[in-house]
């Protein structure tokens, strides 16, 4: 979804309608913050991980805790993952910088 698509959807609702983001488990959380960051689309996301990671949050491929499959998947993401600027909405807690 793009910012323009989200704006178009939101314009169809009264201004006092709450906007929520998917929370942990089965619940929904209020939006607590918004920011922008460069994200990388993960080539083979594992469940329950997200489809995107902030570029600075990608693990080191030489990290000792990665098994061989995770290391191969990470290398594919590092080499082929599409990078783009994205708006990040955060729910619980403080937005990550």
Describe this structure in words.
A hairpin with a 5-residue loop joins strand 1 and strand 2 (28-30). This protein is α+β, with helices and mostly antiparallel strands. The strands form two sheets. Strands 4-3-5 form a three-stranded antiparallel β-sheet, with no helix packed on it. A two-stranded antiparallel ribbon has the order 1-2. The longest helix has 13 residues, at 68-80. It has one domain (17-90). The protein contains two helices and five strands; from the N terminus they run H-E-E-E-E-H-E. It is elongated, with a radius of gyration of 16 Å.
Task: Detail the topology: elements first, then pairings.
Layout: H1 3-10, E1 20-22, E2 28-30, E3 33-41, E4 52-54, H2 68-80, E5 83-90
Antiparallel strand pairs: 1-2, 3-4, 3-5
Care to count the β-strands? 5
Helical fraction equals 10-25%
Please summarize the sheet with the most strands.
3 strands, antiparallel
Shape: elongated
H/E series: HEEEEHE
Q: How are the strands of the largest sheet arranged? A: 4-3-5
Quick rundown:
The chain has helices at residues 3-10, 68-80, and strands spanning 20-22, 28-30, 33-41, 52-54, 83-90. It is an alpha+beta fold and 97 residues long. It has one domain.
